Amino acid sequence: MILGVAVINALIGFVQESNAEKSLKSIENMLSSSAQALRNDTLVTVEASMLVPGDVVILRAGDRIPADIRLLEAHNLRVEEAILTGESIAVTKQIAAIDDEVMIGDRFNLVFSGTTVSAGSGAGVVIATGADTELGKINHMMADIKQHRTPLLVQMDKLGKAIFAIILAMMAALFVFMLLLRDMPMGELLLSLIGLAVAAVPEGLPAIISIILSLGVQAMAGKKAIIRKLPTVETLGAMTVVCSDKTGTLTMNEMTVKAVILADKNFRVEGNSYQPTGRILAEHDESAIDAAQNPVLSHFLRVIDLCNESTVFQDEQG
């Protein structure tokens, strides 16, 4: 029975943590990117993992920067660096040299892996890739942080040690009593002591705790929160206040048009972030508007299109 409970407990933990890892893997796939690089005087598309220091990369609005790059050209180039510095305001980049040693957020002639071009265009030479980038260094530092045991695991350790001590004391007392006072045969006595030890172990407790934590993981998943380790649920449940950086955590730091305000009429816009779906609706009506049938709106949209140099494309991850 104890073996069965242990197997069930291990399976529950494995399934829950593997589901979380798959969810995190899908997020990592969404973050993967390609790059436009100059090789042999030809502009080619290469995977970010194939870039090497010395490659010249072309940057355009909407691109996710694939490596740490020293800028050679910058045309009204602004970069969102919230993922690296926590600042939600786009940083204007330049190509002028910086003589002094400055913080990452003040290195205006560099763009960093994982950040996003919000406007403008530019070009630069790759100076670091993979684990050698600033983002890679942060990930390496995070990996070196020792994992602390949660209060629940600490209490479980204390309970296990207490139960073990009680069982040993009971077995010792029973051994002395039955051997000296009852003159029980040694073989029968050992079987009795082993049976007592097995019966005293709360073998169902780990499975019950795993099931309860699994229910907590499922509840959090319903709220779109991914939990990798089961004991984390207990730690999160003990919190009274959670302080979180909004940008990149609770929001995506991506602007979405919700309204068009013209001289003669206002319109509502449906859609979400960069997804190329949605409708333009009249302000107080649910019927969709055909822009081609509205000269003012059509001209407005054409001006926006001509003044926009970004490109929306769909990759394998959507």
Automatic annotation (TrEMBL):
<dbReference type="InterPro" id="IPR018303">
    <property type="entry name" value="ATPase_P-typ_P_site"/>
</dbReference>
<keyword id="KW-0547">Nucleotide-binding</keyword>
<keyword id="KW-0812">Transmembrane</keyword>
<dbReference type="InterPro" id="IPR008250">
    <property type="entry name" value="ATPase_P-typ_transduc_dom_A_sf"/>
</dbReference>
<protein>
    <submittedName>
        <fullName>Carbonate dehydratase</fullName>
    </submittedName>
</protein>
<feature type="transmembrane region" description="Helical">
    <location>
        <begin position="193"/>
        <end position="221"/>
    </location>
</feature>
<dbReference type="GO" id="GO:0016887">
    <property type="term" value="F:ATP hydrolysis activity"/>
</dbReference>
<dbReference type="GO" id="GO:0005524">
    <property type="term" value="F:ATP binding"/>
</dbReference>
<keyword id="KW-1133">Transmembrane helix</keyword>
<dbReference type="GO" id="GO:0016020">
    <property type="term" value="C:membrane"/>
</dbReference>
<keyword id="KW-0460">Magnesium</keyword>
<dbReference type="InterPro" id="IPR059000">
    <property type="entry name" value="ATPase_P-type_domA"/>
</dbReference>
<keyword id="KW-0472">Membrane</keyword>
<keyword id="KW-1278">Translocase</keyword>
<feature type="domain" description="P-type ATPase A">
    <location>
        <begin position="30"/>
        <end position="142"/>
    </location>
</feature>
<keyword id="KW-0067">ATP-binding</keyword>
<dbReference type="GO" id="GO:0012505">
    <property type="term" value="C:endomembrane system"/>
</dbReference>
<keyword id="KW-0597">Phosphoprotein</keyword>
<dbReference type="Pfam" id="PF00122">
    <property type="entry name" value="E1-E2_ATPase"/>
</dbReference>
<dbReference type="InterPro" id="IPR023298">
    <property type="entry name" value="ATPase_P-typ_TM_dom_sf"/>
</dbReference>
<dbReference type="InterPro" id="IPR001757">
    <property type="entry name" value="P_typ_ATPase"/>
</dbReference>
<dbReference type="InterPro" id="IPR023299">
    <property type="entry name" value="ATPase_P-typ_cyto_dom_N"/>
</dbReference>
<feature type="transmembrane region" description="Helical">
    <location>
        <begin position="162"/>
        <end position="181"/>
    </location>
</feature>
<dbReference type="InterPro" id="IPR023214">
    <property type="entry name" value="HAD_sf"/>
</dbReference>
<dbReference type="GO" id="GO:0015662">
    <property type="term" value="F:P-type ion transporter activity"/>
</dbReference>
